[in-house]
What we know:
- It is a single chain.
- With about 80 residues, the protein is an all-alpha fold.
- It contains three helices and no strands.
- It has helices spanning about 10-15, 25-45, 45-80.
Amino acid sequence: MPYIPQAGRPAILRTPLQKLNDLSVGELNYVITYLCKKHISERGLHYQTLNDVVGVLESAKLEFYRRIVAPYEQTKIIENGDVE
């Protein structure tokens, strides 16, 4: 995960990104896809650019799983018991 220095975080969070909370899942998917396409259009349609975008998406997915999904699953195992 790209760790953003704490001093730089408030500026990022004051952007329209705060409005992402109001989006539906489909709209969130659209925004992510739009950002990826914009990144590619600005850097050129090359293997390296495509590979970089796929890498970012995969890393973000893994970080989300590690930080959010796995702890949630552990809580539910404790609450409901594990698969037997």
